[in-house]
## 1
Amino acid sequence: MLHMEIKIIELEKSSARIFFIGQGHTFMNALTNELLQDPLVDVAQYIKEFHFSDPEIVVTTLEGRTPIDAIMDACTRLAGYCDDLLGQIRAKAQ
């Protein structure tokens, strides 16, 4: 099973800075866009200073929503989209 490594740089009640080790623009764009769909996410952006550096995501939240919960929910939704797509592909391939 594949896993993703993270490094939490800063974690407050309503903000977080997290490095996603080895990830590129594709996943970070998808995660950032999905986070911004959450009405209780104030800021979601990622920074990748250099081509060879790990991206850092910055998330701030509102009204008691924790950034970790927002990230976990966004990842769950992304996984659900992938499961739906795989189901459609399997159905068409039969």
Note: The longest helix spans residues 67-93.
## 2
Amino acid sequence: MRHLIIGNGPAGVIAAETLRKADAKAEIVLVGDEDVPPYSRMAIPYLLMGRIAEQGTYLRKDAGHFERLSIRMVRGRAERVDTAARSVMLGGGERLAYDRLLIATGSHPLRPPVPGMDLPGVHSCWTLDDARNIIAMAKPGSRVLQIGAGFIGCIIMEALAARGVALTIVEMGDRMVPRMMTAKAGEMIRRWVASKGVQVHVNAAVANLRQEGADLVAKLSSGADLVADLVISAAGVKPNIAFLAGSGIATADGVRVGAAMQTNVAGVYAAGDVTEAAGFHSGLPSLNAIQPNAADQARTAALNMAGGSAAAQGSLAINVLDTLGLISVSFGLWAGEPAAAGGEGVELVDEKAYRYLSLQFKGDVLIGATAIGLTDHVGALRGLIQGRARLGDWKDRLLHDPTRFMAAYLASAQKVA
């Protein structure tokens, strides 16, 4: 049996290792398109901060790891998939045959349709090569403009602030991290960031970029000009699926998969950021580009590729963020459900202390949660949501005092036991 995995990020690596555990004799080929060992993009901010060297970003620190597991590494970029012939064509013309195929090609950073985005000094922060360019330019005191304050943008912001740059953030949404935080929570994070010396413009967009001598000048939608030495685009990501055109593999925003992580084509699977998998609550296809889901999907896909029977639990939002020392989390349907659909929620806000807690229910089940400045036992929130625990009387207690979620979790665990 020959297993071919396209993409050597976390999903691809976990799948390859899971396959080897499940089948000691199968041939496993892992394809990546960069000239470095498999690495974690989520470790790049730590590289920018100077906490680790490039080797610290590598997913497996032992140079002989993949060779010992008899996982063959191939460098190349997939250009086309021929599902009838069960083969993948790489950019250099090499054709790789497969019995089972896993698509784990991840995402690429979006480039906003802004004139001037191709100017020197404008970079994404997605690859090790990007990191090298940023390290060379982001010196203490450098004027840095970052476009985007989503989850990835906030992680990059943390690293840039640690480098001592003069940092300005421009975010189109009405708050920071709008896709993982409620309005009050996102505004609380914005105030915290501003108190740390970072300028933040929300409800704003960069209309164009121009070069004036050694300076980059960004014209905002408000008409104001911002001058920078370096511009970083952190405006989101999009799944890498263009190479699947004409393959017959069903795609929409990403690769469509079922609970077994198999596509509509037998023997072809997908995992990680590239997938549109069923949502944990809705059951509907959705993108959810976070590493816990990628790991779960990779293991599920690999076990099924090896002939087993496994099902993913569904894509669940699991976000944990450290923003200049302020910890925030959101789980599940953090925005809640409409009251007409049975939704009900409670918010606890302490503006001065930068503390926030939101719990969202459907019936007596906790379906979503958001917390800022609370680090003790927040994993219990995820446990209640992921376990679909029926809270009974505890729901009313939590509506009265949401801070008692740990007691509710323990009571729920005892009930199950």
Note: The mean pLDDT is 95.
## 3
Amino acid sequence: MPFDPRCRGAYRGLAFALLTMLAGCRDGPQATYSVTGELTIRGKPAEGADLRFYEIRGRTPGMARPYATTDSDGRFTVSTYGMNDGAPVGEYQVSVSWKGPLRGASPDQRDAMPELLPPRFADPTTSGIQVRIVRGENSLGTIDLDP
């Protein structure tokens, strides 16, 4: 079948779609490993704090950002692709946002609540928290912040 110049746009679209699909196949989810820890503020459990993990070497294509939220005892389990599935191997800088215990507050009210930590903790490059995730189970121990 000869090339029909009138279909040039369709051929380009098909080629772009094929290349996009092939690139996407290579960047699938990475293996994750269990990560747990505890967050305290001056030695007291920080209930409802949000932690975000940022790869030090830059973001790996196709990888979601690991995150965790502390429970009433300040304990957390990291999630990346699914609930409590852990994080991929690597070194991370961690940011922390704490708007305090959310008892009685709805999720949409949470965003309007004031931040209880100094701004340096919201920035992974200035929080002072750096962790390494390895194959197997990872316990980060207690991260104690002194704002």
Note: Confidence is low (pLDDT under 50) at residues 7-11, 13-26.
